[in-house]
Predict the structure of Cytochrome c.
Amino acid sequence: MKKILGAACMVLAASSVQAQSFQSTDDAIAYRQGAFQVLAAHVGRLRPVVRGQVPYNAEAVEDVVELIETLAELPWAGFGPGTEGGNSKKDIWANNKAFEDTRTQFIVNVKALKEAADKGDLELVKKSFNEVGQSCRTCHDNFRHKR
C-alpha cells in the first residue's frame, strides 16, 4: 500500500502543476470528472463494510481510507476561473465562498474518516463515512445539475 500511496502522491503533485494550466475548459472538466469518478470508486469500496455486508478488516479499511484522503484533494484544481460547464452549476463561480466552504467541509470529513480508520473503530468509521457521504450530497445538491 505504501508504494501505491507513494505513486498516488507523485500523481497528485504532477497533476496539481498540470491542473493549473489546462489547455481548454473541456480539459478542466474532464480532469475534475475523472478525479471524482476515481474518488467515488474508492469511497464505494467502503460501502459494504459500513453496511455490514462484508467482515470488517481494520487494516484494509485503513488502506482504502488513506487512498481516499489523497484522492480527495485532486478534483478541486479543475474548478478554476473559466472552467464553467459540465455538470457544474454556475453557482460554483458566482457563489465561490459557499462552494469553498462545502469543499472544506468535505476535506474535514475525509480527515475525520482517516482518524477513525487509524483508530480501528468500526462505529466511528461508519459515522465518519456517513458524514463524508453527506458532504458529497450537499455539494451535489447545491452545485451540480441533476442528470
Notes: Confidence is low (pLDDT under 50) at residues 3-7, 9-19. The chain is about 70% helix and 0% strand. The two ends are 35 Å apart (CA to CA). Helices lie at 2-19, 25-44, 47-50, 58-71, 91-94, 96-119, 122-143.
